[in-house]
Amino acid sequence: MDYQKILNDIYNEVIQLENNGSIAEYIPELAKVDASKFGISLIDNQQNIYNVGNATENFSIQSITKVFTTALIFSEIGNDLWKRVNFEPSGNAFNSLVQLEYENGIPRNPFINAGALVIADLMLEHFEDPKTYFLDFVRTLANSKSINYNLEVVNSEKETGFRNAALVNYIKSYGNIKNNPEDVLDFYYHQCALAMSCEELAKSFQVFSNNGINPYNNERLLTSSQCKRMNALMQMCGFYDQAGEFTFKVGLPGKSGVGGGVAAVFPNNYTVAVWSPKLNKKGNSVYGLETLERLTTITEASIF
Ligand code: GLN
Questions:
Q1: In terms of Cα–Cα distance, which of 16, 14, 33 is closest to 25?
Q2: Which atom number of ligand 1 is nearest to the Cα of residue 258?
Q3: Is residue 35 domain-resident?
Q4: What's the CA-to-centroid distance between 109 and ligand 1, angstroms?
């Protein structure tokens, strides 16, 4: 498969499409990003890298980090994780509060904000210095020492994150947050403010296409059963209330973020990451979805 040609063709076609999306303005620091950025990186199962456009430029990967925190906690505590958070699609917006009351403070899944805040609480429970531990963890997955938190994005989210503050306090009222809500939010905002490139993202997702083994150091992070479950979660919940459409049109497990990033996995075949900041109404990158739909259509291959 000539991935470089396929990516070049997709890039040249998609960049000409009208993009009615808008940049994530509710986080002021993200609103400053150049909306015309567009990059794609695909890494095959031999770790060959195929890039096009702004594929090596850093951006705020936001909710894509929820995959990393979930994988880390899953590898630490195994199935006890499911006592704190469920594994069902939400069918609701990423920042919705509505299901929490009916479901007694147990978030539907780890990828909506409510679930990610519970995972952030578990990070604080299990690691003395969770911010440093988490950063090292992602650097190891991405095989890159230069990845860092963008502190301007952290502060911008802190100043405007009233909904996340509501979520964490509400979940705490059910006893499903153990730490101080301020500390949980502080970790969560750092997590979301991780800055990475498409190439680094595609590298860091290799572990999920490689049955739970990080191919860059040959260490096992997840059992193959846990890896299967991470991919199942991405398939069911990675795009919130657009997860069905993503499955229908793309057919790969994946995860989006409001920085305009999308990362996806074709187990035992490739990982791919796209960055284009303009989002649709569900908070997912317009060009990101378009690119991946074309990729699985042209290659005539997906997990289905
Ligand atoms: N930090 C963002 C928030 O909490 C993450 C949302 C996202 O990427 N979907 O709203």
A1: 33
A2: 8
A3: yes
A4: 15
